[in-house]
Amino acid sequence: MIFTDYVFEFSSKLEKTAVIDKREISYKEVYNDIKNIASILKYKKFSKKDSVLLVSENSCFSIQCYFGIMKNGSVCIPVNPSVSSEEIKYIADILNIKLVFAQKKYKKKIEEVLSKEVEIYTENEVYDFISSCDNNCYDNEVKAESISGNDTAVMIFTSGSTSKPKGVMLTHNNLIHNTDSIIKYLSLTEEDRVEVVLPFYYCYGTSLLHTHFRVGGSLVLNNRFMFPQTVIEDINKYKCTSFAGVPSTYQILLRMTNMKDTKFPSLRYITQAGGKLANTFIKDLKGILKSTDIYIMYGQTEATARLSYLPPHLIEEKIGSIGKGIPGTELKVLNKEGLPVKTGEIGEVVAKGKNIMKGYFNSKEETDAVLKNGYLYTGDLATVDKDEYIYIVSREKNIIKSGGNRTSPKEIEDVIVQIPQVVECAVIGVYDDILGEAVKAFVVLKDNNTNIDAKFIKSFCKERLASYKVPQHIEFLKGLPKNSSGKVLIQKLKEMEKNKSGK
């Protein structure tokens, strides 16, 4: 089944609100424009062999193009508009892109790097094309032919182990399976309305789109997270039942807005993924949202979106855990011999299920490195407790090896953010002649608080950590480098240090 047809199976003719983006837009209106996008592609003889680039911020236009490309059976390539022109050119070249849907403000950036033969359609140009067609120009009831559930529907590019991004190929079946599973454990219904600040070119963001459209719920788009107070206001203004964020999302809302002094009567649940949220912030959320379910989750683009969740009723008993596999997904922690770890031992998280990607585009070597023995090897290190609940320790590549000791940066970060004046923190290993690596912490303070200095932070850590885990170096920043999804760019911090030291 084509993923678009699955998503709109029960909602394509509904007059109810699907999206609030400055105005309310109905399902019927959204779906008609999806069919128009698909019709353009069919008219131009695009098939499942063709990939179409989508360069847009969250908007009705991006939603219509995203589902319209898949409805035609073609492969949608959602791209972060803020990536470099060189990266856009690289992706377009390896996929032999012939057509791009893009918001008008990004058209010039794309034109400068792509061949003149590549067609670029902005919002107005799409509608002009449709209105200029006669009845024979396009088929508004277009149906893709010969599309299998195992055909690629979406390709999301992530940063690779080399300088080139990797294209994660997700099939129609991958998307359907993961969507069904998320709907099940979140108990989503047509009454649910989510405020969306996560971009749709990020798998966590698209999972919100998939699930809420499938059940006939609605989305409120907020592209103004640079003004975080608007996020708090919109939850109540639009009576949202849910909200989703990565760790930095909640850290900023908790320490840079009046969230602690606000009541959220409509909020049924919130979700958090995209990295480990420090326990101190989980406790803050629990204290504020007493009648709201809090779902701590874990996932990867290579797994479509979700891999695990922690049931809300266990959040205090199992604080810090990512829970267990979502319905239909098997999640394990294996040692180097490929056997399940014992309680307290550290191993790698592996996953098996119908949500696991088809592979990386044109990269058998990298695909074979992560898809082994029927499992996805995530690269995340974790432990399990006596009840087999999983606790992420770190990414293997981020473990700090200092003086013969292996240290998880997350453990140190979790301590530093307990200081109320700290908004966020990132810890890395930096070159050291004697230890091999020394611990360095980058710290962002609330309101440029001058009462907190390096000596204070080191003293705070000494009372709570083993001596070899106490940061030898501390640097204060105005903000941590992040991608557009809000994830902290650890590699960029490492590169900054490497450039400073020359090591």
Show the helix and strand layout.
Layout: H1 3-7, E1 17-20, E2 24-26, H2 27-43, E3 51-55, H3 60-71, E4 75-79, H4 85-94, E5 99-102, H5 107-111, E6 119-121, H6 123-132, E7 152-158, E8 166-171, H7 172-186, E9 193-196, H8 203-215, E10 218-221, H9 229-237, E11 242-245, H10 247-256, E12 269-272, H11 279-288, E13 293-299, E14 306-310, E15 324-325, E16 329-334, E17 347-353, E18 359-360, H12 364-370, E19 371-372, E20 375-384, E21 390-395, E22 400-402, E23 405-407, H13 409-416, E24 422-432, E25 436-445, H14 454-462, E26 473-477, H15 490-501
Parallel strand pairs: 1-10, 3-4, 3-5, 5-6, 9-10, 9-11, 11-12, 12-13, 25-26
Antiparallel strand pairs: 1-2, 7-8, 8-18, 13-14, 14-15, 16-17, 17-20, 19-20, 20-21, 22-23, 24-25
Helix pairs in contact: 2-3, 7-8
In short:
The chain has 503 residues and is of the alpha/beta class.
Q: Which features would summarize this protein structure in a list?
A:
alpha/beta; Rossmann fold; GMP Synthetase, Chain A, domain 3; 3 domains; 9-stranded mixed beta sheet; 15 helices
What does this structure look like?
Keywords: Ligase. It comes from Clostridium ganghwense. This is AMP-binding protein. Belongs to the ATP-dependent AMP-binding enzyme family. The protein is an alpha/beta fold and 503 residues long. It folds into three domains: 145 residues, ANL, N-terminal domain (Rossmann fold); 222 residues, ANL, N-terminal domain (Rossmann fold, 3-Layer(aba) Sandwich); 102 residues, GMP Synthetase, Chain A, domain 3 (2-Layer Sandwich). Helix content is 30%, strand content 26%. The strands form six sheets. Strands 2-1-10-9-11-12-13-14-15 form a nine-stranded mixed β-sheet, with helices on both faces. Strands 16, 17, 19, 20 and 21 form a five-stranded antiparallel β-sheet that branches.
